[in-house]
Fold this sequence. Notes:
Blueprint: E1 2-6, H1 11-22, E2 26-31, H2 34-48, E3 52-56, H3 62-72, E4 79-82, H4 97-121, E5 125-130, H5 143-165, E6 170-175, E7 180-181, H6 184-188, E8 197-198, H7 199-211, E9 216-217, H8 221-230, H9 235-248
Parallel strand pairs: 1-2, 1-4, 2-3, 4-5, 5-6, 6-9, 7-8
Amino acid sequence: MYALVTGASSGIGREIARQLAQRKYDLIIVARRVDELNDLKLELANAFGVNVVVKPFDLSNRDNCVKLHWECLEYDPKIIVNNAGFGRVGAFADHDLAGDLGMIDTNVTAVHILTKLFVQSMGEGRILNVASMAGFLPTPLLASYAATKAYVHHLGTAIDYELRKAKKPIRVLTLCPGPVHTEFGTVAGAEAALPGMSAKRCATIAVRGLFRNRRVILPGFTMHLTRFFLRFLPLSAILSTAYSIQKKK
Length: 249
């Protein structure tokens, strides 16, 4: 039985691939960096005896998303993990438009395409889309990234409800991590402002929530507490706090 993991060359995606391999899932791993994928393939094949298929795709390209889906049909994956994505910290006006659109293509368009195509082609299974706690609130100095993750969160939650009402054996679940020790900060051009959990721990919680069919998976008690209190804070307080946290980055 196969699972597809995008953004598998590092961070949460790589750790989720390891967790699924430990559960004896064969894997289709996707990222732009083929050397890292091949290293992971060798590691997982040797450690767990699973078959690993490497697919080096840049998912900011729409045609690549469609091609990836087509190439995966022969494997009939039962788990899809849409993890590929990145962010950029800083004032909205200071970022170039091309960079913003590239982020939207990766974080939103690729997730939308792959979710759409696999919901239509899967007989049964689970899709896990990786959003972020930033998707729960407007975030100054992380405005575009937070908006992309809000899209992922709301899209997945709505689709999952539709599928359950239609009694289809497919779930669309959403992972909303807070700070995690990954390459995110390097790509985003920022340093961590808050303590984060390890990518391994985040992946452990994510995979456990995946198999328990948790519609929204929040890694860690702090993230559950944060989401609870966000419901009661006025928008002015949320914006001020979010700005202060991002400014420290």
